[in-house]
Amino acid sequence: MKKKKLLISAVAAVSVLGSAQSAFAISGIADTLTNPIPLGLGSNYSSYVDYMDGDWFSYTNTTSSNVSIIYGVYPNSYSSGANFDVTALLQDPSGNYIPIGTLSDNGAGYGDYGTGSLAPGFKIIWRVFGHSGSDYGSSKPYTAYVSRN
Ligand SMILES: [Ca+2]
Ligand SMILES: [Ca+2]
Fold it and tell me: Which fold has domain 25-148?
């Protein structure tokens, strides 16, 4: 009895991993601020949001100077009318969180972004989520990004 249960959970774990590799992100991927998808400066990540899910991203300034950044999300297609929102916070080198809040909403079809100067060792962490109940699913992909500003 116990053995069978173990086997079932092993199969479930494998199928979760399989879907994570074959598809875009989704519930189970980058769901919390402690396991964001790390992005490098000038890089981006395209995915879509599962219904009522969100995806966290981060960028850490590993240099010894301040880095001026722009970060955020945009819908891959303006005509999709998709609207994604962003909530952001900072983490200082000691691990303390500093809330930034929800970034200004630019409306359907447009991206939302934040800018700032990131001190050495600081991490910016932001969550991408649907503005409304219709801004989810694979027909409305988004791209999250961070780059030098
Ligand atoms: Ca997620
Ligand atoms: Ca928005």
Answer: Jelly Rolls (2.60.120)
